[in-house]
Structure formats: structure tokens, C-alpha cells
Amino acid sequence: MEKKWTGQEIFALIWLILAIAAAIIFSFWQAISLPVFTLLFLLIPLIGLLIRKDASKIGMRKISSSQILKWAAINLGALILIYAIFEPWSGAYTFLLDEATKASATDPTFTWLKMFDGVGGWVGMLLFSGLVTIFAEELFFRGWLLNLLKPKVGGFWANVIQAALFTLPQLVLALMMPTPIMGIVYGLVYAFSAIGMINGWAALQTGAIWPNLIAATVMNFILCLIILGI
After folding, report:
1. Residue 135 lies inside a defined structural domain of this protein
2. Angle, vertex CA 81, rays to CA 227 and CA 223, nearest 5
3. What is the pLDDT of residues 10-20, one digit of tens each?
């Protein structure tokens, strides 16, 4: 029996189209290079949604607000613990933020902080990261890819594989860091373990990306506030 479009699939479709449009429009508006990876991370799940007409296959299924709050809190707590342990002595995320907020940097997430002073820049960064850039990563890896792999290799290995694939492009940044320790912390602890495995684990518990999307967005915002200040 052919699956029909429901309100959840229409919601997912609208969000994906708007996120793609926002990424492209913002790049032209600010005269920065197109965020190719972000666009790919949005387009591939969009194609999957159009073919299968099932939002749950890309991690955008509807779950209760109590589940969202519960697993977002657990996920965020785990992320805070990891960053609190590793960041004070490694400075890995501090280095990344310094690079991303330089005058010559073109990262669309942090460009908002350079566009607007004070609260406006922070609100713009929070919304753009949650609705476009961080959303794209969570959608592709902890949504589409995790759900693609899970029936084939099981939940545990699906999580390991998606976390490893998520980490691969992050290794470019890790290799650019001033010290090997910073690179190891960023690549293996932050990218693979914290964002990859923990966010993937949260997605496995609920079958949706909403808790880990909230946790990842809030964690990024907290780190930026602490490291960069208002």
C-alpha cells in the first residue's frame, strides 16, 4: 500500500525547502561561498522524503513534548559534562570559535555575530544554527543515515558508522589545530563521541532528531556565550 502524505510529512517538506532557501539566500546576501555540505545534508534527506513519503525515515517523526524534553535534557547534560571536562585544558572549541569568527571567516552560523552587535547577532546565530546548519547535520547523520543503516546493521553499529562518517570531514579542522592534543579532543571527543555517538544515541531512543537538535543547538549557544561573551 502506497504511503500517503500526512501533516508530519508536509511539515518536514516545508522545513527542508525553507532551510535550503535560507542557506542559499543568506550566502548570496552576505557574498560568501555556498555552504555545500549543509546543502547536501538537506537535499539528500529531502529526496528521501519525496520518494518514501515518510518523515520517520529521516528522523522527523512526531513525538510527544515530554519525550523531547526528557531526552533533550539527558543529551544536553551529557554534552555539558564532556565539554566541562575537556574544554578548560584543551581549548579545542575555543580555537574553532576564534577561527570561525575572524573577519575573513565565511561560516554562515557565526557570520550573524559579525553582522549585528549585541542581542541581534546572538538571536540570528541561534535561529540560523537551529533551523539550518545544525539541523542539516542532525537531519543527515542522526536522521536519514542512522535510519538507513539501522535495519541493516542494528542500532549500535548504525550509530558508530554515522558518528565515524560525521567525524571524517571534521578531521580537516582537527589537523589544522595548533597542537595534537587539541586535534584529538576535537576529532575524537567532541565530533565522534559527543556530537556523533551521544546525539545518535538520543536519536535511537526516540526515533527522532528533535531532542538532539535542541541539545546540540543549545550546547553550541552556551559555548559561544562562555567563550566569546556578549
Report:
1. yes
2. 20
3. 999 999 999 99
Asked if residue 166 belongs to a domain, the reply is: yes
| pTM given for the model | 0.95
Note whether 4 and 53 are within 8 A (CB): yes
Residue 49 lies inside a defined structural domain of this protein: no
Mean pLDDT of all residues in 5-12: 94
Please state the domain count of the chain.
Answer: 1
Q: Give the other-Cβ count within 10 Å of 142's Cβ.
A: 29
How many whole angstroms separate alpha carbon 60 and alpha carbon 218?
Answer: 19
- 76 inside domain: yes
Distance CA 201, CA 79 (A): 12
What is the Cα–Cα distance from 129 to 4, expressed in whole angstroms? Answer: 31
C-alpha span between 175 and 100 (Å, rounded) = 15
Cell of 177: 589545530
Candidate from 102-106, 176-180, 206-210, 213-217 with smallest mean pLDDT: 102-106
Predicted local confidence at residue 2, as pLDDT: 61
What domain range includes position 159? 64-228
pLDDT digits (tens, 9 = 90+) for 115-129: 888 888 999 999 999
